[in-house]
Amino acid sequence: MEYLFSQVSTYDLDEQTMLLGIILIATVLIVFTISLLFIGSKSPVRTKLEQMKNANSANKLKKSRKFDHTLESLAPMMQSSNTKESETIRHKLMHAGYHDANALTVFYALKSISLVSGLCVAAGLYFLFPDMPMLNFAMITSTSIGLFAPNILLNQQVGARQKKIRGGIADTLDLLVVCTESGLGFNAALRRVADEINISHPDFADELDTVCVKINAGVEMSDAFEDLIDRTGLVEIAGLVTMLAHASRIGGSLSQTLRDYTEDYRDKRNQELEEVAAKIPTKMIFPLLIFIWPCFFIVAIGPAMLQFTSTLGSG
């Protein structure tokens, strides 16, 4: 230690340079310590268990267990004690296409990171820009964004995925009608349709592929489609499940059942579009009042008003 001090004393360094060096070394040590706390080292028992698990499930996707352990340690910071709320989030993640077992843990971990980031931004605004106007509003806004941004993004992903799947239902039903009327069985027709729409509607094709796998595994067709409704959140196809279950129970024609449901579904979509079109005039009133009519009155009445005021001023 004395040798190190003697070597350092040989250099002509001022106090400020030495202070910066000490701060740099302390910062590196702190970052290294925090990284060790987050990542940690695995025990031999844990490593052996993971090797056995990978040997038994070689077809599963390999993930970093260190990262999973870190997320699991961060998730309890934001995880709600309310079971109903956690179940709602889990269903939303399922509707958004996240079917992994650790999807809920990853979501709460990302929500914790987002909240910490929002708090850091608020703290930075408070210390770096203390004289900024509306500082309190900016701090509250950054914290709110950090808290609610993951939920907002998740809802947007759910809506986008449901919109994609909903757009492929009509084409899927038409192809099912063609396949069943050409002589294919329902399972074979569903398999063929899932392969055909894989390019145009990949999300719905993936869900139909899951339905086919479940049916081939011995699950009842109605149960497989009810699971499809639970995974996607689309209640529009609940009627199809009921009609197919009823037709299979009484021995009716599946092709005719599909054709009838396809016609009803298209009529329902046309009615929804007509309803949207009927609401457009009402929604256009506010842009007309705020943006268009004032400009029209300025152009139509403005010159006359200017001429009238100039006439009164000259008189």
From TrEMBL:
Membrane topology field: Multi-pass membrane protein
Transmembrane helix in keyword set: yes
A Pfam family recorded for this sequence: T2SSF
Cross-referenced InterPro entries: T2SS_GspF_dom, T2SS_GspF_sf
Lineage: Bacteria, Pseudomonadati, Pseudomonadota, Gammaproteobacteria, Vibrionales
Descriptive protein name: Type II secretion system F family protein
Keyword Endoplasmic reticulum carried by entry: no
Compartments it resides in: Cell membrane
Gene3D superfamilies: Type II secretion system (T2SS), domain F
A cellular-component GO term for this protein: plasma membrane
Stretches assigned to the Type II secretion system protein GspF domain: 173-300
Domain of life: Bacteria
Entry's transmembrane regions: 20-39, 108-129, 135-154, 285-306
Keyword terms of this UniProt record: Cell membrane, Membrane, Transmembrane, Transmembrane helix
